[in-house]
Amino acid sequence: MKRIKTIETVNQVDKTVLISGWVNVRRNMGKIAFLDVRDRWGILQVVAVPAELDEASNEILKDIRPEFVLAIEGVVQARGAKQINKDLATGTVELLAKKITVLSEAETPPFEIDNEERQAKEELRMKYRYLDLRHERMKNNILARDKVINFLRNWLHKQDFVDVQTPILSKSTPEGARDYLVPSRLHNGKFFALPQAPQQYKQLLMIAGLDRYFQIAPCFRDEDARADRSPGEFYQLDMEMSFVTQEDILQLTEQMFTELVKELYPEKKITQTPWPRIDHDEAIKKYGSDKPDLRKDKNDPNELAFAWIINFPLFVEQSEEDKFHGAGDTWAPSHNMFTAPKEEDVHLLDSDPGKARAYQHDLALNGFEVGGGAIRIHDMKIQEKVWDLIEFSDEQKKQFQHYFEAFKYGVPPHGGIAPGLDRLMMILQGEKNLREVTAFPLTTDGRDPMMDSPSEVNQEQLDELGLSIKKK
Ligand code: ASP
Predict the structure, then answer these.
(1) pLDDT one-digit tens code per residue, 417-462
(2) Staple partner for 305: which of 211, 262, 294, 312, CB 3.0–4.6 Å?
(3) pTM of the full structure
(4) Are 369 and 378 in contact (CB under 8 A)?
(5) Mutate which of 199, 216, 237 for ligand 1 pocket (most atoms within 8 A of beta carbon)
(6) How far apart are alpha carbons 253 and 257 in whole angstroms?
(7) Which stretch of DSSP H or E encloses residue 292?
(8) Residue with the nearest Cα to atom 9 of ligand 1?
(9) From ligand 1's centre to the CA of 374, what distance in Å?
C-alpha cells in the first residue's frame, strides 16, 4: 500500500490507508492506546484497540514510546460531533489501527518536542537542532521560508531575471567586512576568500550582458553577532539590473514585496503605500536612526512598515572604532566603494567629498534594515577617484585589477539591491531572532554545537596546506 499524508485521511473516511510518522504523544486508556502520529503535514490521532490489531502489532504496541517512527495501516473513521478536535487539521477523523510496524525506535529526546519551555535551553536546541525542527513552530518557519523563496524566484523569472550561481571560493578584497579565508592546497600560501556578497560578480554579469540577475546568495562575513546580525553566514536575495535608474529599482522591489505580502501573508497590512521615502539626513534628524520603525501600532504583529531611505552621503567619516577594513583614515564608503555619486555631486569629489550624495537606497522594515543597494559607478575615472578618497594603496588597487580590466570593455549603467532573507523572514514570521528562521544557524559566539564546528584538523591536513598553527 502507498503511504498517504496524515492530512489526506480527512478525505478517506471508511477507507483502509497507510500512514507513517513519529509518535508525538501516547496516551493509554485502559487497554486502548491513543497515538498522536506526526508527519510534515500535521498530527493524526491513531486508536490502537487490541481486538482490532494483529498479534504482532499488539506485541509491538507495548513498547511504543514518543518519537518512535511507525507505519500504521488502518481504517479512517469519522469522529462523532463531540469528538471533533478543532485544533487539528485532521480533527474530524481518526485512524483505527489494524497493523503497526516500527520503522525506527527512539530514545527519550533531551527535551520535549512540543514544549515551548525548551526556548530557555538554547545550547541544547542547537545541539539537537533536528529535534528542535520537529517542533511545529520551527517547522512552519522553515516551510514559510521555502514558500517565500519560491515566490521570489517565480516572480523574478517572470520579470526576465536570470538566476546565476556565483563562486563560493572567491578572492579576498578589502570590501568592508573581515573575510573568511580558505587555504589553497594546490597553491600553498595562497587563500580563497568566501564572498561577503556576490557584489563584484553581479556587476561583472552586467558587463557580460545578462541584463537582469538574481541569486539566493549565501554571504560570509567574519563579524561579531548582534541580535539582528548572524555571525558567519547569511542569505541575501541578491539582484542587479542594467540600464536602470534608482527609481526603477525602488519600484520593482516595492512591487515584488507588496505582491509577496498579498499572496503569502494576506493577514498582514502594509502601513503606507507607496512606501515613504526619507532622506538619510531627515531620518537621522527626525528618528535618530537610518532604519526608523514607522509602525502605527508597534504591538500589532500584522503591521509592516516599509520605508526607503535615500540620498545618503557617499562617504562617512571614519571613526576609530568603526574602521573600514583595509581603507584609509578619513573617508569610508557609506554603502560600498562601487556606489555612484549623484551626477550633480560628482564635482564635489574634488572639492568637498563629505557633501557628495550617493545613489544608495536602504530598505527599512519595522525598525530593521532589510536591504541595501545602489546605482553603481560605471565610469572607471570616478571609481579611481573614490579609491583615492578612501586612500587605497597601490597594493589594494591591484586586488581589483580584474575589475579595472573588465571596465575597459563596455559597462552598461547598472544598479541593484540585496534584501536580507533571514531578517525579512524573521519579521514576516514574527520571530525575535534570526536563528528561528534558519535551519542550521550558528550560536551567537559563532559555533555549531550540533556538528561541533569549527573543529581542529589533523596534522596531515595542515601539512598538505603548508600551514602551522600558532597557539594564541
Ligand atoms: N552587495 C551589497 C551588500 O551586501 C548590496 C548591494 O549593493 O546590492 O550590502
Answers:
(1) 999 999 999 999 999 999 999 999 999 899 999 999 999 999 999 9
(2) 294
(3) 0.94
(4) no
(5) 199
(6) 6
(7) none
(8) 372
(9) 8
